[in-house]
């Protein structure tokens, strides 16, 4: 009898209508270091919209779903929620998600319902009515997300890939050589283009990072129109909000100031000729497709150079960056413990 009760499809918790949460979530996509944090901070200052720190729900837990069994069973849902809430990124949310409120907010008993419950409960706790999510890696799960949230609206922010590469190279995560950085930037944009073909104009808006820096109010008003929300002047005061946003130190410093026009075109003075040649040889076509002017007409890299990049130049830089990334170590250990426990059936 207990199993029959647990398998019931009837919601026994609060529904979205009970919480007053919108049925149209917002997903912010963009290659890392393209301005996704800036955009999420701005939109998160809207009086109706709540956007927490990154969640990494899909890229971490979606591939592990088979280990959790039937999510119609309450004990399996609770186990998944408990594992999610122990990850380092979720601990970084301010305030952290409340377990009891999260479980009460799950009205749909699958993985996407758990995502919705986590986001909805947190949004409700902020006194807001609509949630947004910003995890760059979730773009690679866009089909699953779109199927689960057909009323979603997507904001994609694009930035000159050469500036992205410079910023990403200096961060605590990600590739540390211009060759894989160019490949990653191109891959993100190619994946976004696949998503774009599946959505109509009411569901997809692309924002250019450089324009956001130059005309913040005009771009933010455009975003509000797209989201069908009233423009709120406090969105432009995002840098005055004291809420923690645990990104790396340099990014945190930038987020504590108004948009910096000096953050555009930094590659012109900071990227070496060799780096520029490599980047444009890999992703020059993508630069042109997005309206960014190339510096090299027909840059080339040889197969021998590629071997050099992949096996000699990049590995030591990546290893050194990983050794310095103590926060990444903590997160990695937490995730590894969860995975090992799941595989062992503990």
UniProtKB/TrEMBL annotation:
Residues 247-264 have a biased composition (Polar residues). The keyword Transferase applies. It holds the Pfam family Sulfotransfer_3. Gene3D superfamilies: P-loop containing nucleotide triphosphate hydrolases (3.40.50.300). Coiled coil: none annotated. Keywords: Transferase. It comes from the Bacteria. Residues 247-266 are annotated as: Disordered. One of its GO terms (molecular function) is protein-tyrosine sulfotransferase activity. This is Sulfotransferase domain protein. It comes from Moorena producens 3L.
């Amino acid at each position: 009898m207990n199993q029959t009760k647990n398998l019931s499809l009837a919601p026994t918790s609060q529904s979205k209508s009970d919480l007053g949460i919108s049925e149209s979530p917002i997903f912010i996509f963009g290659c890392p270091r393209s301005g996704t944090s800036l955009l999420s901070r701005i939109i998160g200052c809207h009086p109706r919209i709540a956007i927490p720190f990154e969640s990494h729900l899909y890229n971490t837990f979606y591939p592990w779903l088979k280990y959790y069994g039937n999510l119609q069973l309450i004990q399996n849902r609770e186990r998944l929620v408990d594992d999610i809430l122990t990850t380092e990124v979720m601990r970084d949310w301010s305030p952290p998600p409340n377990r009891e409120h999260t479980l009460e907010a799950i009205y749909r008993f699958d993985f996407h319902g758990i995502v919705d419950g986590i986001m909805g409960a947190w949004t409700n706790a902020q006194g807001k009515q609509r949630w947004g999510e910003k995890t760059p890696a979730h773009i690679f799960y866009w089909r699953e997300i779109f199927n689960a949230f057909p009323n979603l609206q997507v904001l994609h922010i694009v930035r000159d890939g050469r500036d992205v590469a410079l910023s990403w190279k200096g961060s605590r995560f990600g590739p540390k050589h211009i060759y894989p950085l160019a490949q990653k930037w191109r891959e993100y944009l190619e994946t976004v283009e696949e998503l774009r073909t599946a959505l109509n104009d009411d569901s997809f808006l692309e924002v250019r990072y450089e324009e956001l820096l130059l005309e913040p109010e005009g771009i933010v008003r455009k975003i509000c129109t797209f989201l069908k929300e009233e423009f709120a002047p406090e969105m432009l005061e995002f840098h005055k909000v004291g809420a923690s946003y645990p990104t790396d130190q340099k990014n945190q410093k930038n987020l504590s100031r108004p948009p910096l026009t000096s953050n555009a075109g930094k590659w012109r003075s900071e990227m070496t000729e060799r780096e520029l040649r490599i980047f444009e040889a890999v992703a020059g076509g993508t630069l042109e497709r997005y309206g960014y002017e190339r510096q090299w007409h027909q840059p080339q890299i040889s197969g021998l150079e590629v071997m050099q990049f992949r096996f000699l130049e990049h590995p030591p830089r990546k290893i050194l960056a990983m050794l310095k990334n103590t926060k990444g170590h903590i997160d990695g250990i937490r995730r590894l413990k969860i995975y090992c426990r799941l595989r062992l059936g503990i």
